[in-house]
Each structure stands twice: as structure tokens, then as C-alpha cells.
Amino acid sequence: MSATATNQQAAAAASSEAAPAESQQAVEQLLPDALMRLASGLPMNELDIMIKEAKACEDALEKEIAILEKKLGVEPEQSAKSDGNGEGKSPAESKDGTSGELKEPSLGVLPLLPKPYQPNSGPKNHLESVEEMLATEFTPPDRYFTISALLGRLRQPLSLPYPPNSKLPDALKKGKKTEQEEKKRRLGLEKQRALIALDKDELYHREQEPSVLLALWKKISAHRTAAVFRKAVNPAEAPGYAERIEFPMDLSLIRRMIQGGLIKSISSLHLRLGLICHNCCKFNGRESDYARLTREFEEMVDDKVLEATRHAAVVEVKTAAATAKGTGTAVPS
What is the pTM of this model? Predict the structure, then answer.
């Protein structure tokens, strides 16, 4: 084999290894803005719950990390959360010492969750042995539903990794990505950038005629993935829903909000549709069948919203051109 051919193969191998690294770097760069975009559409009280959950989740993760470090013989750094007696704060206590008790839903046993992660399990919110940690695919965020919902909605656009020892079907967990899959991933990242940029688009926030918003709503509601979201969830058919979901939302309610003038822009409509997705992932779990359907639904919603915003820009240009033609004024290119 010639040196040239060898160099070409080495370059191709290096390129194939660099692509996933670049892709991962792009994910890390987009993650904060993507999280902000998803969280910005949530009600303030829901965000308060998320903050309390984040503090409790951080407490649980630190405890499990300390157990792993001890098993590995690593000298752990003194936790910032420990007091003078070396005792950690409870999950419901914030760093400033204020109490922020979590509102736990009164649900039955969730058999897939390890007992300490289940609702109403008290202050013990972490696993106490390495063996338990290796035996389960769940982590502390799975106990805190609002955080888990946000991670569940991110799975599709940013392709976050599955937990270790995941028992999900192998068909859902692929190893090395093909060229076609990498292309799809790159397109997904570009789409996330476009969605993040929407917030700076004046047309996205501009007040629209109800007919324009209803036309967009109709396209979304007619999609096959929208079927389960067209009507409100019946609490009798979903025990515990009312306790866990404080701000229910469905497509029929969104239509009434448009007709009643409560939703006046594409951005406002987009936020309400995002709340539907948040609620579904929060109640059903981020890797449930409903969560996977939700990710497909939200992907479609994002496509329709981007398309509608681009169409609004085209309509504005045509309207300006027609007005200029009628007045004899030149339209800037």
C-alpha cells in the first residue's frame, strides 16, 4: 500500500473520530440555551418547583458520588453542603439555609424506580451502595419529575446518552452512528440553533390575526402525534395527575385561548404547546412510550412554528412590495 493511500485512510479515520467529538462539543455549547428556551415557557411556580428539585437532586448526586469515591479509594473533597459536624443538609434545604420543601405527589408505587427514588420516600433520596447504582439505569433526577421532564424533552434534539445498564430496547440504543444518522444529527443541531434564534425574531413575537394562529393550530392538531393531546387528561383515567400536574394544557384549550384573545402571537402559541410536552414527560417519565411520542410531537411543532415564522416574513415582504408598487416607492432589497 502506498504512503499516499495510507495517509488518506488515516485522515479518513481521524475525520470520522473528530466528527462525533465536534458534534458533542456543539451539544455542550447549545445545551444552556436549549434548556433556557424550554424552561422559559413554563409557569413561574413550575420553575420554583424545578429550583427546589435541582437543589435536592444535587444533594443526592453528591451523596452517591461520595459512595463511589469511597469504593474506589479516592479521597473525597469536603462537601460545600456539609456543616461543622460533617452532616449534610436535607434535600429540601437550600444552600442559604432556607427551607424549600418539595411537594411530593401522592402516587402509588412506581416499580421501575429504586425505592429511595420513589415519591414519598422521605429525605432519603439516594442509593447507598455501588451495587445498587450499577444495577439500575435510574439516577436521582428520575425521582424529581420536573427536572426529568426537561431532560426528556432534550433527548430528541440533542441526543443525550442513555443511562448505563439501560434496559430500553436495543433498537433504541445504537452504537456507532452511520453517515446518514450523523447528517440527521447535524440537521437537528442546526434546527436547535434556529429555534434558539427565534426569540430575537420580531415576527415570532408580533401579534397575529386569530385566523393566522388558528390555521397554524389546525396544522398541528391534524398531525397523527397530536391525537392524545387534543383533549384534556381525565384525572379518573390517570390517578395522581392532578397532584403532579399543576398547569394542565391541551390542544382544545389552546384553541379556545386563541379565540378568546389570550394567545396573540406565534411565540405565545409555541410556549403553550411546549407546556403540553412538559406535562406529558413529567407525568409519564422521560423514557416512557408517551415521552417518545411527545418528542416526536414537539419536533413536528417546532417545524411548523419555524415554517410559520418564515412564512410571516415572506408575507411581510410581499405586502411591503405591493404597498410600494401602489405608491411608487422603491422597496429596499
Answer: 0.73
